[in-house]
Design brief:
Largest sheet: none
Structural class: mainly alpha
Helix content: over 70%
Radius of gyration: 19 Å
Number of helices: 15
Shape: globular
Number of strands: 0
Strand content: under 5%
Distance between the termini: 15 Å
Length: 264
């Protein structure tokens, strides 16, 4: 399994988990400056959703029925979900090739084709989550049991996602040889390290995201706009770090087994 080519950076081979997390945030900041157009995609979609929410009076009156079922807000919510998947291609490549911005944004085969398949699968899953019927309703369960099943399903999906991390990272790097079965084998023994990367790389930004959203309730209009601009930027960084933690976890797991993730 050592025939898969990649040139991992020295700090990825020798660094500690703490150094990896520092690198994650540093790379996210560097990416936002090096490739501002790509960085702005989830930022603009998030801000567009905030514009609709402000128009609906969400920050004055709270999340009423009009806001919950507003088609514009729902559509932009789905678009934001798709936009946040995109760094799974360009930011993963940016980290893998040591901040090579040209390589990160390049649409090259087979990497782009493989990522396109992943993107389509994730888009279908997200559509079902957002717009599909509740699992409890499909199974004919009562409200309480339905909530338990939904929670168990979310936990199960998260666990499965951890073991598929190497697959989700290898394909944007052009390596079709790592599919789901091999990904599970590679990630075995790296579960808690992956959880640690995920918590450190996403929870701080998620907390800030929610703090800005709830903190904007009842504020003056000008302050709401400022806070929503800040929140959109936070979401843009969160999109990067969410992809970056997957790269770090997969790369560490691959190094432990003397496997290389990328093709080229």
């Amino acid at each position: 399994m050592s025939d898969l080519p990649l040139c991992p950076s020295p700090d990825m081979r020798a660094g500690t988990m703490w150094n990896d997390i520092k690198r994650l945030y540093a790379d996210a900041g560097a990416f936002s400056l090096a490739l501002p157009v790509l960085f702005s995609i989830p930022v603009l979609v998030e801000f567009a959703q905030h514009v609709v929410e402000i128009d609906l009076g969400l920050y004055r009156h709270g999340l009423g029925a009009a806001a919950i079922f507003d088609q514009r807000r729902l559509t932009l919510g789905f678009a934001k979900t798709l936009a946040m998947i995109l760094p799974g291609y360009w930011f993963v490549r940016y980290m893998a090739w040591n901040r090579d911005a040209d390589r990160a944004k390049r649409i090259e085969r087979p990497a782009a084709t493989l990522f396109g398949i992943l993107f389509a699968l994730e888009a279908i899953i997200q559509w079902l989550v957002l717009f599909g019927p509740p699992v409890g309703l499909v199974l004919g369960l009562g409200p309480r049991l339905s909530s338990y099943v939904t929670l168990a399903g979310a936990i199960g999906a998260s666990v499965i996602g951890i073991y598929l991390t190497a697959w989700l990272v290898a394909w944007p790097l052009g390596n079709a040889r790592i599919g789901p079965p091999r990904s599970i084998a590679l990630m075995a023994g790296s579960f808690w390290r992956t959880v640690g990367y995920t918590v450190a790389g996403t929870v701080p930004l998620m907390l800030l995201h929610h703090a800005l959203g709830y903190g904007a309730m009842g504020r003056a209009d000008w302050l709401v706009w400022v806070m929503m601009v800040a929140d959109a930027l936070v979401v843009g960084l969160l999109a990067l770090t969410s992809a970056g933690v997957a790269y770090l976890a997969a790369q560490r797991a691959a190094e432990r087994r003397n496997v290389k993730l990328a093709d080229g």
